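To: structure subgroup
Subject: Chain for Friday's discussion

All,

I'm putting the inputs and outputs inline so they're searchable in the archive.
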Amino acid sequence: MELSPLNHTWLIDVDGTIVKHNGYIIDGQDTLLDGVKEFFDNIPSGDKIILLTARKKEFLESLKTFLSKNNIRYDHILTDIPMGERILINDKKPSGLNTAIAKNLNRNEFMISYKINEDI
């Protein structure tokens, strides 16, 4: 995935994407997936990170504690998100830059990479 050098907004699902799906229920605690820490460490500081989860609001504080303990940066967490598709709609810049990108990962397999393309 190639990104522009502009600042970005990351909309990232929690369960099955950055932590083991339903680990907080099955195991009694969350488990960070391999590669997630390094990925978050490489997100530029000027970017915004919004986490999405179908978890009920009652689990928000324990999720925040887990993320803090693992040094996972975020700006906002939205809870009680429906379990269906997440649909992102955005405009295209006059330069032709697509301002919406979507990636679907296999559950519990965090494999994503990107590079900044200064020519975009």
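Points worth raising on Friday:
The helical segments are 23-26, 36-41, 60-69.
The mean pLDDT is 93.

D.
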